[in-house]
Protein: Aminotransferase
Amino acid sequence: MTSILERRQKLLSPSYRLFYDDPLHLLSGRGAWLTDVHGHRFLDAYNNVVPAGHCHPRIVAAIVAQTERLNTHTRYLHDIILDYADALLATFSFPAQATFTCSGSEANDLAIRIARHITGGEGIIVTENAYHGVTSTTAEISPSLGKSVNLGAHVRTVPPPVAGTDFAAGVRSAIVDLHRHGIRPAMLVVDTIFSSDGVFSEPAGFLIDAVEAIRGAGGLFLADEVQSGFGRTGTHMWGFERHGVEPDMISLGKPMGNGYPVAGLVCRPDVIKKFGSNIRYFNTFGGNPVAMAAAMATLCVIQDENLMQNAHSVGTYLRTQLARYKHIKDVRGAGLFIGAELTNGQLASRVVNEMRARGVLINASGPNENILKIRPPLILSNEQADMLNDVVGAALEVALANE
Ligand code: PMP
Structure:
């Protein structure tokens, strides 16, 4: 009989990459847990797509109910898109309008179009190991894809905000360099938790000068909240809020529908006005009633079950526990977005594999892949955090013994 791996190889694009040498074959999920075909349970501490936990009954019910009633597109009137936009926009402290898409990449792609339309500029500034999407324009601003994808000639990279460095100074130099090449800056894009750069969260406020610099050069500021949004960072609904800045545009995705594909771009009304009056935007599936029902139920669960507060308390507890391991050089992050820095990528890879063998799923990130990236569902309990922490300890011990 052909194995599932052979079938995949035969049927799917070779662009797909699996996690682990011995990949997981999953059957079901519930809460923070995943179960594989052998009946083994895994604590999912990596998936930033299910803030409410896998298959949350209230969200499943909302998707089913709307699927049974109506699913169509945004060129007819329906209430649910407005009910959701109302609830979503109420989480921002400034006036804004929403455009819905199917993926974070589409949201960032749209932001690029808007920024270029509004500013007349082309130049885009991103961090050195950023990831912003799969479309050709967002891949061009995603240096983490490596050398196989060329950065656009209009793209400049800046060092991530490693502790003590002046992030805004990098942005100012990039602006000077763009001008030297005759390119007008269109925008600065920042994943506000710097997920693929290696998770940089402190000190809160370091974005203020950078945002001022890009605005001074006539460009816009896009906060990519695909990773950091919807309460994950614990103290605020949105990652940029920790830094006391007000973006021109905010892209949303991953956790927005607790697994259902729904994403979007939120813009200040003056920013979207000029683009929207000149250019028609229709995204066949973006903002469809079922997507909106999924997003609405997800937001309600995040708010009603106090998941942001839970991310703060359990995240703070977990980070304190992890900081006790002397082989972890640094523990960074906010809420339940945690980066734990090891000395090298090989060690991190061994830890990730040893943890899987002990029933906990995480991964590594950063340019050297030496940062353990830990992003459990926001429902994580203190007991589950203890288990995760114990497994990190056991995995570290075995991985270090093999160094
Ligand atoms: N921005 C960031 C910061 C991301 O992490 C991702 C996905 N990993 C994206 C954008 C793209 O989102 P999607 O995969 O939904 O297109």
